[in-house]
Design brief:
The protein is of the alpha/beta class and 337 residues long. Helix content is 55%, strand content 6%.
Amino acid sequence: MHPYVAIPATAALVWRAYFRRSLTPAGIVVATLTATVHAIHPWSVFYALLVVFFLAGTSVTKVKHHVKASLTLSSLGSSGGEGPRTHIQVLANSLVASVLILLHYRQLLARDKSGDASRGCWPYGEDLLVVGIVSNYAAVAADTFSSELGILSKRRPRLLTSWNFRQVPPGTNGGITLWGTMAGFLGASTIALTSVLLLPFCHVGPTSRAGKLFGDHQPGLEGGSAWGLRERVAWVLAVTIWGGMGSLVDSALGGWLQASVIDSKTGKVIEGHGGAKVPLAASHIKHDGDGGSRRIESGADLLDNNAVNILMATIMSFGGMVLAGRLWNAPLNSNFQ
């Protein structure tokens, strides 16, 4: 990506994050480094995905923030609601994509001995790393939209990991609603549409005898390596569906591996600061009606929210690459050599 675009764009994002208190100071530093990694890649699409995710994510976080703050409590003793995101939260959403971007950049450089990796296009059925990067942002966008908008549902969420799909308080890890699930697919679609507009697809060329023979400019669904209209529509649908499923995977992981702590007096979920675990002394935990002020509603206290997010992003990124590799008959290990 050209520096004269990346530098002012990153500066504008830093300014916005600082004055709108979207990120903590450490979060701004890590986000700047993350943006730099994305800008190093010659394709502008990955930087654009980061920007779209940041702008859309912070926007939905602010939607009816006062209402969301009244539905949960903070572990610090104040009302709930998402505050400025920390450096750990930034990494939880972008670390997997950043690593894959560096790997793909190295892959492009290896193909072009001259060092100009910006030349060329993305052939259909190749470069599974691209699938992994887009899958990461589709999944984390879906999770953000689902969490921030789903909590506003008029219906109480139901615990995805319970045998009877029981109702739980808003904000419970693993709790889902129809509204939140739909919001997740909306979030994934923003990434899908951004990617289809900016990815350097190999275009369908004019039909010729040589083209029919080698399939160089024929649509991918017809055995070629080009991306026609059908291939691009299929891409948008696949990214939207796969990314939307990421919010459900995150709910399942959170419901199983992350403890949801409830304040016994108010019945509200207590959120850990910056996605961390809710600090609890053993004497404060209430199980099955004994006399503590807090109780665990669901989940094993194994991971915090940030660990769940990065685990989900890893599963969805590599899962997307594996599925695409099976569909395209492209070996996954060739992308890491």
